[in-house]
Amino acid sequence: MSVTKMVYPLYQLGNPQLRIFRPNWLLTLVRPGKEQPPDTVQFRIPMDMTKYDVKNYLEKIYNVPVGVIRTRIQFGSNKKRNHLNQKVKKPDYKVAYVQLAQGQTFTFPDIFPEKDRTPKEGSMEEMQEKFMEDEKQRQKLDPRRGGVTEWFGL
Amino acid sequence: MAARIRLPLLLSRSFPPLRSLKYVHTEAAAKEPQYPPIVASLTAKSKSARLRQNEERIKMISSSPVEEKLSLITHIQRMKFVVYPQTFSRNPDSWYQHFTKTAYIPGLPEKFNPGTEGSQSAADQPAAPEIDEAAFNEIRDLVTRVILHEHWHKMRKRKPFLYKHQEQVVGPFLKTLVSDLTHSLAKYNPLLRLSSLDLSPQVNFYWRRGKRIIPRGHRRGRQEPIRFQIDDHPHSQIRIPQQLPQFAPLEASYTAEVPEIHLAPNVMPLFRRQYDNNIFTGAKLPDPACYGHTQFHLVPDRYHRDRLARQQHSDQVEPFLRANAAASLFAWTGAQAMYQGFWDYQDVSRPFVSQAVITDGHFFSFFCYQLNTLALSVETDANNPRKNLLWGTESLRLYEGVQDGAVVGLDDGVLRLLVQFLMNRPHS
To answer: Given this structure, which CATH class describes domain A28-100?
Structure first.
């Protein structure tokens, strides 16, 4: 199947079932913008996919027990204008909310965890940081003056 | 100078009791307010004025008669969540329990357990003839007759169309069963003679629970209560002029657990609409049979367990039934309580009790509901330890099937439960 638009044959009673052996679709798992229940997973799917396509895709390829799927199409705004005052369209995309079956839950993982920024002992960075801290301490005014500047005074 | 100052101080220290005796009556007089109480303004553009306006409105509603009260509570229309008791959502029972502050207790209350049945019937003996073996056999014959009439003897020209089996076959069966059972049990339960059997009634209820912050619009950032409406259409219901006795004391609900869900209801999915807010038990306000006895619900084809099994959703059958019972019975008992004049700020003084039987023709599930509190909005729920209680059974099979003009596998236990449900009446 090529990347171009997929045309499904019209189904009539008695026709063989439509089978897709190597689908060309990619699903993107995204973090939900609004809070979702623990059994709901949010995907961005190609516009051509339907709910039944997503269900079969997840069940057959990834063995994920799927309960119910709801989809919607998000309109990408056409309001922003570039430096030539032309309207710039953000692309539309389809979102699928997949509710997992068999009591399974899913939470979107933390992809960018906070790194521990303390430098290790005896390294160049630690000495540089200490030097910068001492410099800053020297620039600060006498705390006994309570924030008053040194322009005037004895 | 120092000596002159000290003397009156010395005097005051030695004579305090005399002084207090002299001033007893004048102190009481001084306590009476000389000026009207200082309260916030009623018309200013301030938060305290808004609070005072709300208090005045609450006082006005509390002091008006029931019809006016209902119309004052429901006449303003706003966007509200429409709660369908029979829903396609996944795991709706925990959501509905949160919306209605209901705790689910598996199994039925002690009244319906076989251990205490003997004492119950002994206590009721002087009032009316009790159900003995002969009477029970009669009832069993009646039920067999009804099943055979519908599934064996009745001439059907063609099979019911796709997904019309429940409404065309099981609906009439349940209707005949309910009316025949009610009429035959009326000689054992005098309350049923005064009852009113409604067929395809309407039950509506409107309430507020929780708050949300308005995200967009000219009222952005302000708090708004979340409104709900149930429009239920049970298959049939029995209404009685006296109230059923409570299943458990009010205090017993303090320890029950209600599932808390901190997500917005529209994620469930639940949809919002704006239309008339109705509160209706099935009959209008002046009707003497204003209390509820039993509701009968039919499981439609869409939620039939065979269809759910084909879609591999068999684990959703029981949550569907529980959610249906919780929502329907909460709406019915809440409407009954509002007909008596209780509302959000005037909580119920006695628990309101109702029963429900949900069936799809073969499987029967029995539920008992006790409404202990109507105070579900944020202000009234802050210190409210009361919770509503829902008792329920799993689905029990009444009969296996019909073969060669005979009913196979009729379960006596289920029949006894059904009879006990219909025989439930206040002690006296």
So the answer is: alpha beta
